[in-house]
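hey so u asked for the seq, here:
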Amino acid sequence: MGYLTVLRSPQVARLLLGTLTGRLPAGMTVVAVALALHAAGAPYSQIGLTTAAYAIAAAIGGPVLGRAVDRVGQPRVLLASAAVAACGYAVLAMAPRDPAAAMAGAALAGLAMPPLEPCLRSLWPDIVAPDALETAYALDSASQQVLYVAGPLLVAGVAAVGSPAAALWLAAGLGLLGTLAVATSGPARAWRAPALTGDGASGKVRSGWLGPLRSPGLVLLLLAFAGTGWSVGAQNILFVAYAQAHPGIPGGAGALLALAALAGLLGALGYGAIRWSAPTATRTWALAGAMALCYLPLLLVPGPGAMGVAAFVSGLGLAPLLAAAFVLIAELAPAGTTTEAFAWLVTLFATGNALGSAVSGAVVSDSLRGAAGVAVGGITAGALLLLAARRVLAASAEAEAEAKSAGVGAGAGVGAEAEVGAAGAPAHAG
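ran it, structure tokens below
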């Protein structure tokens, strides 16, 4: 089933466009904060601390908000978090000269970043046919590549015609607008996490404080994706340093990053167009290995023309790997924890990204090849972990499928609320 069929499914275009709009601030924030604080005369040390506050807060807030969605549904959490995040952007826009206020605003914007990405991935099984689910996740993964190209370009354009503070106000508005489009949609209002326990004894999920992290396969997958994020973060620093060392590259680091993002978009579209017969766990570790191979040309640190080719090749594997991982997470997450599980993927990827950036930044001034090695090392470690854990991943997915099936069967006579979600929609099965 092709992409046009998925896009023609009811509500898909609205949800996908709303999610992309609401998540544009994630692609805008770091650049907008840096420009706004720099224009206000802030030193680079303050800019670094402020952007770090945003990233750390987002890493903490994602799983918390994801768990809240699994407990109370999507609309209330999405709308409340979007309003709070908008307040954080407003503080940043109004007080860039006050270090404490700017840091507090950045932390608030990150902590309350609406969990649109995990929410959409929880909705896909409800809004597309089962045989289109793989294509939907691939489309989702491909769309993410657009954010981190469009976001910085949007900030640059707004700052050029207005001011960096205007970009922060725009980020607040886009976050509210996109979240409103998603939260008020029929699928988001109807969605409910599974209401049954494994034995059907009650109408509430008993997941414990670990939530989805009680699945050993999911924990291993998340750790592997921290390595993937590490590679992407290290690659970003490598491209910036390479462009500075080769000032003749048209577009500089932005062009190299755009080439990688374009390759990711094409890779995801190609992945979604294929009907896969291999189990999801097998596809995931194989695609991780393929991404590691795609990163190897970076070690050559060739001349500008060849580096453009290497940048493009390096981007081919990420989006297909993410698309496979989205399906695997849905298989591995215990019933009632799907949104939080997707949020943990975002958090671990972002944490790895930050660590990879830091390590690459520490070595890149001495050796571009050393920074390339840091980039290759993260995804290689992640691929090896997934390969070593392939039996655990497969067993965990099988165990969760049996548990979810047993939970639905055991609860068939519990009551009407066990069989239908809000507004008469079928309860989401994770």
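The chain is about 75% helix and 0% strand. Confidence is low (pLDDT under 50) at residues 196-206, 408-430.
lmk if thats what u needed
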